[in-house]
């Protein structure tokens, strides 16, 4: 996934721990379900309407700020023209809400080949017979009008696709995923600033956080069976036994990462995965994407503005290889996907796995930096009300967090309602329990400041190539509970004094 790299919606056709260390969680005998949103048809329909309207308002905000040339240009070969994204959003809604859920003929089935992401790579999409921006706007509006008519009939729980308004939630998530991808395109675009947002909140006065928190060992419930809008790779819920480990309280900051650079981090092959080192030598990487060293320090380009890098905020626009190299330099490692999820959602007091670090309530502006409310991460240590039971902060929002894990299916995985969302990204023949992951895709967790809350929860899984840097990605590091913390300068560099 990227940015989240929105998944195309096609036409319908950890080893068990040994003896738990002292302080381990109380063992639970089986998978413990977590509370989930109201699944009454009327409540789900209202939730779907709100999610669809929020997504569309955001989509239009991302395209209405540019002229036709800005919408049809390809700002990077990594991304589609924004006009393609806009009509693709409408095309998937046409396919799933009108044709599949509504049994209607659809508005423009003839557009399917143009907006099929698997038929045409992003770099080649400018050559497609795309709808001009004005026509694309009319198309998505006409599709949406009919989709709301389908929704008004109250989705039937008799069919799996419409039960709990799943397909409407899936399409709302799809649109928001594309919106985050479009936001990444805006970041890659050259030109004056056209997007504006207030700065994120700072760290409350008097905050004093430990550099790391202990996550006790023991079993927890990973994944979900009962979240009605969870996507296929989040299922099924299964028990995972995770040994105790230490985790950074917040994501690694830009200031800490700058110390790694100044210490020759990009010049020392021992810190790098072999493929990562080859990539560094081939591309000449020296710093995170959009950073530039000036005489008086680092600057960055952010949505058309050039400004000093905020050293107290999470580092952004780093690849998995860079995150992994920093962790090795710091005498630590990246957390596994299971470790990350346990830290984010397991409540040792109840044995339950929460939907969000703070509980079951939907994210609010007091909990996390989500939904493009701000156009950058908040300083490390912000959002105390979003703290997880283990004491870690900013596990949702701010930056996607690279994990050590390859993307793989959970036990009992079933592709639904189509293979192309997850299954085609797994290793060949890997569907099912016990499969290894694909080294071509590393898992990211937690969402960024550009992720909408409808597509952000502690079970949500993102994935991308380990070289990707245009996505809003950072990381935090971990170490086993029975290891000694690294010595300076690495440990001291992880967080500025007082954060």
TrEMBL record:
Domain of life per record: Bacteria
Keyword Ribonucleoprotein (UniProt): no
Stretches with biased composition (Basic and acidic residues): 340-349
EC number: 1.14.99.50
Cofactor(s) it depends on: Fe(2+)
Function in brief: Catalyzes the oxidative sulfurization of hercynine (N-alpha,N-alpha,N-alpha-trimethyl-L-histidine) into hercynyl-gamma-L-glutamyl-L-cysteine sulfoxide, a step in the biosynthesis pathway of ergothioneine.
Family that this chain belongs to: Belongs to the EgtB family.
Protein name: Hercynine oxygenase
Lineage: Bacteria, Bacillati, Actinomycetota, Actinomycetes, Kitasatosporales
Gene that specifies this protein: egtB
